[in-house]
Amino acid sequence: MSGVAFDVASNRSAFPALDQEVDGHPLVYLDNAATTQKPRAVLDALEGYYTSDNANVHRGIHELSRRATEAYESARSKVARWIGAEDPTEVVWTRGTTEAINLVAFAYGLDRLGEGDEILLSILEHHSNIIPWQLVAARTGARVRYIEIDDDGEWILEDLPELVGKRTRIVALNHVSNALGTINPVERVIGHVRMHAPGAVVLLDGAQAMAHMDVDVGELDVDFYAFSGHKACGPTGIGALWGRKAHLEAMAPYQGGGEMISVVERDRSTWAAVPHKFEAGTPNIAGAVGMGAAVDFVESIGKPAILAHERGVVGYAIERLEARFGDRIRIWGPRAIERRSGVVPFSLDFAHPHDIATILDSEGVAVRAGHHCAQLVMKRYGVPATARASFYLYNTTDDVDRLVDALGQVENFFG
Ligand code: PMP
Predict the structure, then answer these.
(1) Atom 6 of ligand 1, nearest CA residue
(2) Ligand 1: which atom is nearest the Cα of residue 128?
(3) What pLDDT digit, counting tens, does each position of 206-258 carry?
(4) Any idea which fold 43-300 has?
(5) Distance (Å, rounded) from C-alpha 192 to C-alpha 184?
């Protein structure tokens, strides 16, 4: 729901960290797929919480604990509404996407997978949606299978009939790729899985989707949805797992400790109701509060408007980069602009990605270089790494011009 017209200058002014110089140059922050900057509203929420409400949740019978509990739980309700979930108790707070996926791998997968069962991933996954499944597969005898990608970074769906079948138990896929920016056709895969592997559960890794696209877990027809606050204007160290209530109730606890129990005996104990069963120990209360403020902030702008803005800037970036560097640049990912998010990964034939990022940094332009925790993608394209510019609601075409100019310095150095 967008209440106001999209105003990039006003968006930008809401983020104090953007207003600084690096090496004598005004900062151009193009590493949003790694983490976004935080708006003043989120910083204020964190400070406000610690300044006046700080206490432990669900425990203390005193005013501050009541307030902290109310803030923590109302942020949970906000996040539930944000993803179209009717029941806030289906939202488990986690450290982020990584912990949310590990929770499903270990609390769902470990107890349910056996020899010869299959876990379907794609080679486009972030390592955090590969390694937990490899760990669980090694302990259970299950087999990890992969959807391949084509040269444009799109899943090869023609292989689905061969990949999805009676042995498929878990399908875990990213909604949007961090390495290539592909907005994946998850609906098509889920439709196929529901038809041909009705017993399988589907988890989506929404780390790169939440900040950019409206997400409705009911419409997506998923069983689990994982995401991180810090990639959507929220604090680090907070994220969530949404899961269907029936699954969460049937799953054993993932970690033991305070908060997650009902009655403790010497040799056995009983568990608190979901979601608390999965939230052992003192949680990241301030993080949850900050994430609630991030939801309000992002919603005040509106994700459709954010995505439309990003597409404009990304389209301009691709045009300018190709015009400037011709066949000396390779831009990875889908050609069609509506198939990609704000991510523009690229390689230059005259410089290594790490050298590109280092020289850009000296020009005040922050990009990421490396394998982007997606080594299977790098292997598919035969490159050790790529450089990646990733755009968000505060980036402008001027930022793109600064990027292209700074890449000119890379060319002067190496070209
Ligand atoms: N999946 C994807 C697609 C990601 O981009 C990331 C973060 N780069 C993660 C998972 C992991 O998120 P986090 O580090 O916040 O747990």
Answers:
(1) 207
(2) 10
(3) 999 999 999 999 999 999 999 999 999 999 999 999 999 999 999 999 999 99
(4) Aspartate Aminotransferase; domain 2 (3.40.640)
(5) 14
